[in-house]
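Q: How would the C-alpha cells look for this protein?
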Amino acid sequence: MMVIRKRRSTSALSLSFATVVTLAALPLSGPVFGQGTGQRSPTSSQAALPGPSGDLLAKLEGVYKDIHANPELSMQERRTAGIAANWLREQGYEVTEGLGGTGVVGLLRNGEGATVLLRADMDALPMSENTGLPYASTKTGTDPSSGRKTGIAHSCGHDMHVTWLMGATQILAANKDKWRGTVIAVFQPGEETGEGARAMVEDGLTKRFPKPTVALASHVLPFPADKAFIRPGLMLSQSDSLRVTLFGRGGHGSSPESTTDPVVMAAATVMRLQTVVSREIGMTDNAVVSVGSVQAGSSANIIPNESVLQLNIRTFNDQVRGQVLSSIKRIVNGEATTSGAPKPPEITTLAGEFPLTVNDEDATRKVADALRQRLGSERVGPASPASASEDFTVIPRAWGDVPSVYWIVGGVEPQKYAEAERTGSLNKLPSNHSPEFAPVINPTLRTGIEGMLAAAGVWLTPPGAK
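A: Here is the predicted structure in C-alpha cell form.
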C-alpha cells in the first residue's frame, strides 16, 4: 500500500502504515547520529528495567519468524491474537480476547502508580512477499476490499511490533519488584484499514479497562536498525480513502466508436488527479493524492461498462483537506462529463479512521529523554511531520484527555543503510509496503523492546530506583 521516497532532506520525514506514503530520510552523518551499533548500558532510573536477555531474544526471534510466515489480513488476526493472548497469560496478565473482533488486551496490576498503555498492531497486507527469506510468507486469502484472491504479507512490519510488545510485557512481568503501577498491553487488529482501534473502543475498551496515564506506540521503518526517531507535536497526517466508480457503455473491443470507454475515462482521471497537489496546493502546504487501485474489465476484446479507482489522500489540516477533496470531486465529474459518461460517477468514502497523530509535548520530551538515556544520545534523533497515517490515537482520545506518544524505530542493517546513504541510493532500500520489505531481526528486535521499556519506565519506575 505504499511507495516510499528517501532523500537527504530533513524537511519531510514521511512514513507509511496504512496506504500510500512518501518517506524522506533524515541525514545520519551529524554528531547526533553516530553510526556505531554497540549497545549502551541503561543509566539512571532506566536501570530499573533490564533489557532483553539473549535467551528471550532468541525465543522472540522464533515467534517473529512464525508470525511473519503466517500473516493475517485486517480484522482476521485470529492466530496472531491467540499467540499474544497465550503469551500474556503465561506472564501473569489478566487477558481479554475478542475485543473489537480479534483484539487482545492484557492487564498487569502492580500496586499504586501510573497506568501505562502499550499498543502494537497485528494485521498484514493484501500483497505477496518477495524477500527471499526462509521464513517468507506464502499465504493467500481474499482481499475484503476487492473480493479478489491475494497474497498476504507482513510488509509493513506489524509482526515486529507484536514481538516488541511481547518482549516488553515479559520483562515488565518478570521485574515487578522494580516498578509500580498498571500496564495495559493492547494488541490491536485492523490498523491498515483504519477499523481496529475504533472497533476496540466501540466494544468497550474505555469502559472495561482503567484510564491510562499515557498511551505509547512505535513503528518500524527503513532507517538504521539501532536508532529511534521522535518529535513532539504533529507527527503523522490524517488520511481519507475514496472509491470512485466511473460509468461507461461497454461493447466489443473492435468497435470502440459504439462505446463510451470507462478505461480511457479512468486513465484520464488518474493523470488529472496528479495535478491536484502539483498545481492546486501551495508549496508551503502539504498533501498527498495517490491512486492505489485501478480495476476495469475482464478480457482484452471487451470494453467494460465501468471502471473503479481507489484513492488515498493525506493532509495535515482541515482547510487543505477540504480543498483536496473538492478538487478530486471536480476532476472526477469533469472527466466523466468530457467523456460523455451515461451517468455521473459515484464517489464513496471507504471505512476507516485515520486522524492526525499529535504527540503530547510534555510526554514526548519525557520519552525522548528516556530513549536517549537507555539507547545513547547518538542513537536517538528528531523526526519531522510525516505524510503517513495511523489509527493509534483513536484509543487515547476515546478516554478524552490521555496524552500519547508515537515514535519510530529503524529496521535496516546499519552498515547497509550507511552505504546506501554514502552512494546516494537510499531510494533503492526496500520500504514499508514493498514486497521486498522485511526488517533485519537484529538489532531491530532489541531496539524496539528497549524503546518500549524506556518509554514505559518514565511512568512506571519508582523515583530513585537503582
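The longest helix spans residues 318-339.

The first strand starts at residue 94 and ends at 99.

Upvote if useful.
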